[in-house]
Design brief:
The structure holds four protein chains of four kinds.
Chain B: E1 3-8, E2 20-24, E3 31-35, H1 39-47, E4 58-60, E5 66-68, H2 71-84, E6 88-92, H3 98-111, E7 114-117, H4 124-133, E8 134-138, H5 140-146, E9 149-153, H6 157-160, H7 164-169, E10 185-189, H8 195-199, E11 202-204, H9 211-222, E12 230-231, E13 234-235, H10 236-247, E14 251-256, H11 258-261, H12 267-280, E15 285-290, H13 298-308, E16 314-315, E17 323-324, H14 331-336, E18 342-346, H15 350-353, H16 356-362, E19 367-370, H17 376-379, E20 383-385, E21 396-399, E22 405-408, H18 421-436
Parallel strand pairs in B: 6-7, 6-18, 9-10, 9-14, 10-11, 14-15, 18-19, 19-20
Antiparallel strand pairs in B: 1-2, 2-3, 4-5, 4-20, 7-16, 12-13, 16-17, 21-22
Helix pairs in contact in B: 2-18, 3-13, 3-18, 4-12, 9-10, 9-12
Chain C: E1 2-8, E2 16-17, H1 23-26, H2 31-35, E3 38-41, E4 44-47, E5 52-55, E6 65-69, E7 76-77, E8 87-90, E9 106-109, E10 125-128, E11 151-154, E12 170-173, E13 177-181, E14 186-192, E15 196-200, E16 206-211, E17 215-217, E18 223-232, E19 235-244, E20 252-253, E21 256-257, E22 260-265
Parallel strand pairs in C: 1-6, 2-7, 6-8, 8-9, 9-10, 10-11, 11-12, 12-14, 13-15, 14-16, 15-17, 16-22
Antiparallel strand pairs in C: 1-5, 3-4, 18-19, 19-22, 20-21
Chain D: E1 4-13, E2 18-28, E3 31-33, E4 41-44, E5 49-52, E6 54-59, H1 64-71, H2 75-83, H3 104-113, E7 116-124, H4 129-137, E8 143-148, H5 154-161, H6 165-179, E9 185-187, H7 191-195, H8 215-229, E10 235-238, H9 248-256, E11 273-275, E12 283-284, E13 292-293, H10 295-304, E14 308-311, E15 319-324, H11 327-337, E16 341-346, E17 350-358, H12 364-379, E18 386-387, H13 401-409, H14 411-420, H15 424-430, H16 442-456, E19 474-477, H17 488-496, E20 500-503, E21 506-510, E22 513-514, E23 522-528, H18 533-545, H19 551-554, E24 564-570
Helix pairs in contact in D: 5-6, 5-8, 6-8, 6-18, 9-10, 10-12, 12-15, 13-14, 13-17
Classes of the chains: A alpha/beta, B alpha/beta, C mainly beta, D alpha/beta.
């Protein structure tokens, strides 16, 4: 499988904010945040088709998200997952002794995972602490 | 007859718009219409109508399920858990009024806790920079009335603060800026071409995580020295042109955001921005402001500074004095180093917004969530205590991103039996005092209701 | 000379704040008295004896007291902080604030150190055989008076913020460093024998830096002025001399503007 | 409420000209009374001095810039934090922190420990008034009031440019009510408004950019408006050109502006101008090289003119935090010491700056500043018109008042310090302190810290004395009037920690330790006058167009000042 190494940033968007205020289990929140924005050239390099799922892996974990062409332009080499549950599966907790994690500017690899399923917010968070009961 | 309430404050982002109009039902229990707010604020007000909003505390059972329990039981558990822990961490306060933040100070002192707020994962580095280099800033009205050059550095108000540009920074017509946007030059520094960058007259699309070098390049140019041909991916000429625009401004306003605080160097990016602001004040008038995320996230910084001398990451375990050193006493570091043994999440969602590894560490110990709604932090908590929503069914003082206090009102009646943050914390405090056989310390001025026999004035 | 040996007996559940582990606190005390010296684990006041087996009595003064910790202190903070004389040796790792606010004496950590070691150090010697995390020899938050004197030698690598707000003394990192070296410094010397990612000497007013490896991203405010021959940690070599940070304010001495100096090992 | 009798102390009460007579002070229901029943709680004051509670006329203790000072100086807490004992919670009071800018809890407790009962927050930016009141109600024990700043307010400048004193008065009346404020504070008139564009007004006739009104017109107009309204306090001014060599001439010119204005009020106040932290305004010389004291020149004029009261602003030679609504000054100061700099320009109203500052005894200028502050008091003739302050925390923290008192009461203490200075000879040459033999008496100290400031604030019926009917704020100071200690350090020690302090009829400090969180009040002035339609329209329009907050969210809600003491002032149409 081809893979691409990119620099990841995770920040706010109005779609995320608007959906979050409806509740984090709302489908809008799922749609707004379980995506990864990339430059089309990078997608091509990694053999990723628009609107298919990819596996994003950082030094501290991985997550399945849907790759889309950027809603706000990102240059080649940079990737963006909107702030939220999916992004935080891969955000390194290292703080450079300032208290603030590395939410932006950390290396990830991204590879196609068209057959993998996206997880819901609850599944990811409850699953990570051994509380997830649903979905089996 | 439905009632239209004007001048309502919006409890979402740091813009803390207080020109919202809300139409509420005759019996003041439902929000019918929201005017003037952005899409996010509108959703927030409407979400308060959600009939499934929790009305009772919910405790996790040994089998993983949750059960509703009475408030008395929840308060007792809360108090006992705090007292039993060697070092509890009380974190959050992104969506709480200052009354709640003040009340929690009393608990934290009593519990020997670490008190931290969302700034720790957000604008905490801005505090660090402020400690080191100061903060030449102003209120948002100054930007509105005077600024003819506006710089957005590593922030994206079009998404994160949707009405910021129309109320304060780009479009409004102010006292000396009668022509609004026509009179303003807008610069945007961002590695992405965000919707804010699209609005700007000049977009400096820098290499991600090289803000510090770019700030230094601006400063070097301003002092008349030459710089390399390309700095942080920006050609020298473009840097010189932007520096000249700032220098020639009548009033230059720099707004910065997570693009500076979440990347390499953290506080130093802002530190350099502050140095640039100081330098520009040799040539013109220049101000800088952090784009604070929540409507009252400046609040804990204020309240806890006057109570303990520090805005965040306050370690009260010693009982005799407060200690602060982000990197050590900050929530994420405490979690990752397994330095706390109880976690209280108030008015925020650490479950969703902490890196997942930090959540896993914290989850090794009791986890209490205080929040009006269901969220990730409530769904993994051992105890979830619902409270009223500040700015919706609970009034209170909030501090806007420029530290201007705004007295928010309640627009609807609270759910019956559901306390405010302040009431809940006061009850927990009283319970802690009962359990430890000590007299509660109420400052008379704050706690009017605690002193029914208070002698009248002189 | 008296040697006090602390043998770890228990790993603290949270961190043990061992602010009493200094020759100054141990001096004039018996092993039993030392074991009773206070520390904190969270809000609980504990004693050194709760986590260590103490053998040997302290010397008459701090200068006569050597402390040897025979084991790992990965969860012990403040070792040797504020000490004025004597020695502390740790046969393992140490947590934060090793040698913080230290005025004299010597600390030797044989493993790695966490962050904030040598914070606002004024004198003495701090040696670490392994790596140090961040904020080596920096200032406390908000203080413009960083490290004033003494020597810190890290035989491994260090993270970010080395010598922030430094005013004097010497920091030597024998391997690599990450970002922010001598930021805001107004004196002192930092030597990095390996590579640095970048942000070397930003906002620096005065002082010296030596980098013998490569700097990946140079600060735009530094300019090369000449090539010089200088001794660096006992070895003489040819170095490219840069001055800066030209974006920052600088004082004058005898009519001449005094810049901070960066010496980069010249290409052979 | 229980009765208390303070028995057998040396009573010092300038309001009744009592100077050291042995007697009792009876207290009932929070007030001083003629006598109490035999069941009254007895406080033995034998061999000790008994005074009214202290009244501080000018101190920065609550509000946005004070809090900036706390927030941005963690290092101010580092040392004080490391050396304090662990008794806070055990003793039944809240945690304390900070040295130069103490937390609200420490502020209230420390003032009470020194026997102070009332403190005036010296500068309240109106838009931030809810913040000021939030801090006031988190400050235990002491009664407080706050002065909103007017000297650079756009409404005021607009009206005064046109000479409209009545409209200015109507606006002031509205703002005092909206902010629950006490009176008119003026800081660097015009200069702070000019700072909005990075400029300043350094003479009385520098016009404010755009508004085209001068500091002279602002000062005079606000004095006139103050007397038109008949407020309890006079206009309270921090003059232009603070802190610069040679500024004493401008100070004298500003003080002379009082000559055309007559006091008019029902509160027994005689002055029309309170000139604050005069030390910073009494400088001679043309630069830091020939910097010298002009305290005598300034006090010669003050002594002649009854229409002026002043406070000293004593430099205490500490590391402290400067903070003022004089925005351009702080920018200037930052250029001198290169430490961190905070600035807050406040829309339509004012600005503020905050910069740490080290008054180093090894620096000549700092020592001269120290001497000037003391000279002012030692040259004063009427001790009821000059008050002890440190412009807390600008020239030093308020916790140094006992030290200032020591220097004023003991020539030995002054000379000991003076002779320890590195630049002793230069300091002696640039000042006259070395020649001054005067040592103030306890009676004079009581005038400067009790009766004087209370009268100047128009509250001599409540504070500053021990006459029946007044608020029962009574401090017992462990000094023997008949046998004062030879060691001046004992004077400082006695004033630092009162042997006993009774506030509003309740014992709050015993043997220097806080024993109760007390009952405090917020004092504000409510001017009642007929509505002025033009001013109402101007205010409404400005909130629609220029402000960024809604007018209904601007006015301080009642619950934020839960224990108000409201002074009503009636103005005839």
């Amino acid at each position: 499988m081809p893979k691409i190494s990119l620099n990841m940033i995770t920040q706010r968007s109005i779609e995320e904010g608007a959906a979050m205020e409806k509740g984090k289990t709302n489908p809008d929140y799922f749609d707004a945040c379980s995506i990864c924005e990339m430059h089309p050239d990078d997608m091509k390099k990694a053999g990723i088709w628009k609107n298919t799922n990819v596996l994003v892996t950082s030094e501290c974990g991985s997550v399945i998200v849907k790759a889309i062409t950027a809603t706000q332009y990102v240059p080649p080499g940079l990737a963006h997952i909107r702030q939220g549950v999916w992004a935080n599966q891969v955000v390194p907790p290292r703080t450079q002794s300032t208290g603030t994690p590395q939410y932006s500017g950390f290396p990830v690899t991204i590879e196609p995972a068209p057959d993998e399923k996206l997880k819901t917010a609850l599944q990811l968070v409850q699953g990570s602490v051994g509380l997830w009961k649903g979905g089996q | 007859m439905p009632k239209l309430i004007k001048g309502v404050g919006c409890p979402y982002c740091g813009s803390s718009c207080d020109d919202i109009e809300v139409l509420v039902s005759d019996d003041e229990t439902r929000i019918l219409e929201v005017h003037n707010a952005c899409i996010i604020g509108t959703n927030l007000f409407h979400h308060a109508n959600d009939p499934t909003r929790p009305r009772l505390p919910r405790q996790r059972q040994p089998d993983g399920s949750v059960k509703e329990i009475p408030y008395e039981e929840a308060i007792d558990y809360f108090a006992k858990t705090l007292l039993a822990a060697k070092k509890p961490l009380i974190y959050g306060f992104g969506s709480t009024n200052c009354e709640g933040m003040s009340a929690v100070g009393r608990i934290a002192e009593k519990a020997g806790a670490v008190l931290d707020n969302c700034a720790t994962i957000c604008h905490g580095p801005s505090f660090l920079a402020m400690f080191d280099n100061g903060y030449p800033s102003c209120t948002l009205g100054e930007a509105k009335n005077r600024a003819d050059v506006v710089v957005f550095w590593g922030c994206n108000p079009m998404h994160a603060h949707p009405r910021h540009t129309s109320r304060y920074s780009i479009f409004p017509r102010g006292y000396f800026t009668q022509k609004g946007q026509m009179q303003r030059t807008v610069l945007c520094v961002d590695p992405r071409e965000t919707d804010t960058a699209k609005l700007a007259d000049h977009h400096l699309m820098l290499d991600q995580s090289h803000d510090y070098e770019l700030f230094d390049a601006f400063r070097t140019v301003l002092r008349g020295f030459d710089i390399p041909e390309v700095v942080a991916g920006i050609p020298r000429e473009k840097i010189k042109e932007a520096a000249e625009i700032m220098k020639k401004a009548k009033f230059c306003m720099i707004f910065f955001g997570m693009g500076c605080t979440h990347t390499d160097g953290r506080n130093h990016n802002i530190d350099a921005a502050i140095s640039l602001t100081r330098d520009l004040n040799e040539h013109t008038k220049c101000s800088i402001m952090a784009m604070r995320g929540h409507y009252n996230i400046a609040g804990p910084g204020q309240v806890w500074s006057w109570q303990f001398g520090f805005p965040y990451c306050i370690d009260l375990t010693k009982g005799s004095h407060a200690h602060m050193n982000p990197g050590e006493t900050s929530s994420i570091d405490l979690a990752m180093r397994d330095e706390v043994d109880c976690f209280v999440n108030v008015g925020t969602d650490a479950g969703a917004h902490f890196p997942i590894q930090a959540v896993q560490h914290l989850k090794k110990h009791p986890w209490i969530t205080v929040d009006p709604n269901f969220c990730m932090a409530s769904e993994i908590a051992d105890l979830h205590i619902p409270v009223r929503i500040a700015g919706v069914d609970e009034p209170g003082v909030v501090y806007r991103m420029d530290n201007v206090p705004i007295q928010f009102r309640a627009v609807i009646k609270g759910l019956p039996g559901v306390p405010s943050d302040e009431e809940l914390f006061d009850m927990v405090y009283e319970r802690m005092c009962e359990l430890t056989n000590t007299a509660p310390i109420w400052l008379a001025a704050k706690e009017d209701r605690k002193y029914p026999q208070n002698p009248a004035v002189i | 000379m008296a040697t006090v040996t602390l043998k770890p007996t228990k790993v603290p559940e949270l961190m043990f704040e061992g602010y009493s582990i200094t020759p100054d606190a141990f001096a004039g005390k018996t092993a039993a008295q030392i074991a009773a010296l206070p520390g904190h684990e969270g809000k609980i006041q504990v004693t050194i004896g709760d986590f260590f087996e103490v053998s040997g009595n302290g010397g008459e003064t701090a200068a006569d007291t050597d402390i040897v910790i025979a084991g790992d202190c990965s969860r012990v903070k403040y070792i040797g902080s504020k000490m004025t004389a004597g020695t502390v040796t740790v046969n393992g790792n140490a947590d934060m604030y090793v040698g913080g606010w230290m005025k004299g004496g010597k600390i030797h950590i044989k493993g790695n150190m966490d962050s904030f070691c040598g914070i606002q150090m004024q004198g003495g010697e701090l040696i670490c055989d392994g790596d140090a995390k961040n904020h080596v020899g920096c200032a406390y938050r908000g203080d413009w008076r960083g490290m004033k004197g003494g020597t810190i030698r890290i035989k491994g690598s260090a993270g970010n913020d080395i010598g922030t707000f430094m005013l004097g003394g010497t920091i030597i990192i024998e391997k690599d460093a990450f970002i922010h070296v001598s930021t805001h410094a107004e004196g002192g010397t930092v030597i990095i024998k390996g590579d640095v990612e970048g942000r070397v000497g930003g906002q620096m007013v005065k002082g010296d830096m030596y980098v013998l490896g490569k700097i990946k991203f140079m600060m735009p405010g530094f300019q090369k002025v000449d090539t010089v021959e200088k001794e660096v940690d006992g070895v003489t070599m040819k170095l490219d001399h840069y001055i800066g940070d030209l974006g920052e304010r600088h004082g004058k001495s005898k009519g001449q503007v005094v810049y901070a100096n960066l010496y980069l090992k010249a290409a052979a | 409420m229980a009765e208390i009798i303070v028995k057998g102390g040396f009573i010092i009460d300038p309001t009744r000209k009592i100077d050291g007579d042995v007697g009792d002070v009876a207290i009932k229901d929070g007030k001083i009374v003629d006598k109490v029943s035999s069941s009254a709680k007895v406080i033995d004051a034998k061999g000790k001095v008994v005074m009214a509670g202290g009244v501080d006329v000018h101190s920065h203790v609550a509000g946005p810039k004070v809090n900036v000072g706390r927030l941005f100086r963690p290092e101010d807490k580092l040392l004080s934090g490391f050396c304090r004992s662990g008794m806070a919670q055990k003793n039944g009071y809240r945690m304390e922190s900070g040295f130069s800018v103490p937390s609200t809890f420490k502020t209230g407790y420390d003032y009470a420990r020194m026997g102070y009962g009332f403190v005036m927050e010296a500068a309240m930016p109106p838009i931030h008034s809810p913040h000021v009141h939030e801090e006031i109600h988190d400050t235990p024990i002491i009664d407080e009031a706050a002065l909103p700043v007017f000297g650079n307010n756009w409404f005021v400048m607009d009206y005064l440019k046109k000479g409209e004193v009545e409209n200015t008065g109507a606006y002031i009346a509205w703002l005092l009510k909206a902010t629950k404020g006490f009176g008119i504070k003026v800081v660097n008139p015009g200069g702070t408004a000019a700072w909005g564009w990075g400029l300043n007004c350094l003479t009385l006739d520098d016009p404010v950019p755009y508004f085209e009104v001068t500091p002279r017109e602002i000062i005079t107009g606000l004095m006139q408006a103050n007397e038109y309204l008949g407020l309890p306090h006079s206009m309270h001014v921090h003059q232009n050109d603070l802190g610069n060599p040679g500024n004493y001439q401008l100070t004298l010119d500003s003080l002379k502006l009082t000559e055309t204005v007559k006091p008019k009020n029902k509160f027994g106040r005689e002055q029309v101008m309170h000139s604050t932290h005069l030390q910073f305004h009494s400088y001679g010389g043309t630069g830091w090289g020939d910097f010298e004291s002009k305290a005598k020149e300034v006090m010669d004029y003050v002594n002649k003119n009854k229409a002026i009261t002043v406070d000293t602003g004593n430099v205490t030679l500490d590391e402290t935090t400067t903070m003022t609504a004089d925005g351009p000054f702080e920018h200037h100061l930052n250029g001198l010491n290169h430490l961190k700099w905070c600035n807050v320009d406040v829309e339509m109203e004012t600005a503020a700056g905050v910069v740490p500052y080290v008054y180093d005894p090894n620096i000549k200028v700092c020592d001269i500043q120290w001497a000037i502050g003391l000279e002012l008091a030692l040259y004063a003739k009427d001790m009821n018109r000059i008050f002890i302050t440190t412009d807390h925390p600008n020239a030093g923290p308020f916790t140094r008042y006992p030290r200032v008192i020591k220097w004023l009461m003991s020539r030995k203490a002054r000379e000991d310090l003076l002779s320890s200075f590195k630049h002793k000879d230069k300091v002696i040459a640039a000042t006259t302190l070395h020649q001054l033999e005067r040592e103030l008496t306890l009676f004079e100290i009581a005038q400067m810290t009790r009766s004087g400031p209370a009268k100047c604030l128009g509250m001599s019926n409540i504070y500053g004395g021990l006459a029946p009917g007044m608020s029962a704020d009574v401090a017992v100071i462990d000094l023997n009037y008949k046998n004062m200690p030879g060691d001046p350090e004992q004077i400082e020690k006695a004033f630092q920690r009162a042997a006993c302090f009774i506030k509003s009829g309740e014992v709050v400090v015993k043997d220097g330790e806080v024993v109760s969180n007390g009952h405090k009040k917020t004092v504000w002035v409510n001017v009642k006058m007929p509505e002025n339609p033009q001013v109402t329209r101007d205010i409404t329009q400005s909130f629609t167009k220029d402000y960024t907050v809604d007018i209904i969210n601007y006015q301080v809600r009642d619950y934020l000042a839960p224990h108000p003491y409201v002074i009503d002032v009636d103005v005839e149409a």
